[in-house]
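$ ./design --mode recover --in tokens.txt
reading tokens...
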């Protein structure tokens, strides 16, 4: 997926064994950030070099290994400008050995990063990125409302997919919390484009109409 509306550029990279969606956002000046580096970052690093983009930050929607396993590759570029909710920070510091074996990857984790919380706003180049706490899939799941000028998109991680939601049967999952998180997302504009952690793009309105997991009192 590529977007170039009102100066916002977004490129999706399918990453790792679970085809996690990693998203590279860039403003007209080439200032960039990456959401969910869940695999080998070689292609992304080459793209940054070829396009002469300046990576300023890495944003993590949650701490599962398929969304963080490539983060170490970006540390030389961004230093400690890696953002995650505190509830999932231990996953970033000490990535699951079991998941490393399952996915066939090695991830040592990182110690230097920053945390985000509900309502926080990050300024990266021309972007304004608002943090929406959306626990349920994990205790520290967040969505990022990413705006540049009049254009906005939502990076939803594994909270909301096209006609589905993140599973809650893994450690830390909580179905009632996820339903409350969907109620929060339902207040966003229906036309808002949603960029999920796996699968194709969608919109808030499409999910309101078609998602079988959408809370019934919100349909």
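writing sequence...
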């Amino acid at each position: 997926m590529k977007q170039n509306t009102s100066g916002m550029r977004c490129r999706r990279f399918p990453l790792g064994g679970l085809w996690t969606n990693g998203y590279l956002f860039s403003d007209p000046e080439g200032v960039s950030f990456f959401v969910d580096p869940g695999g080998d970052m070689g292609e992304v690093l080459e793209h940054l070099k070829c396009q002469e983009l300046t990576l300023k930050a890495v944003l993590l929607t949650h701490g599962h290994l398929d969304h963080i396993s490539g983060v170490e590759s970006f540390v030389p570029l961004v230093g400690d400008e890696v953002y995650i909710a505190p509830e999932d920070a231990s996953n970033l510091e000490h990535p699951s050995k079991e998941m490393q074996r399952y996915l066939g990857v090695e991830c040592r984790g990182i110690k230097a990063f920053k945390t985000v919380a509900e309502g926080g706003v990050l300024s990266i180049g021309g972007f304004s990125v608002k943090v929406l706490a959306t626990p349920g899939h994990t205790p520290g799941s967040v969505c990022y409302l990413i705006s540049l000028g009049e254009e906005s998109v939502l990076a939803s991680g594994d909270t909301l997919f096209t006609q589905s939601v993140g599973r809650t049967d893994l450690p830390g999952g909580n179905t009632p919390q996820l339903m409350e998180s969907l109620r929060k997302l339902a207040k966003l504009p229906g036309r808002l484009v949603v960029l999920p952690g796996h699968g194709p793009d969608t919109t808030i309105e499409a999910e309101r109409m078609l998602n079988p997991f959408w809370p019934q009192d919100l349909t």
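exit 0
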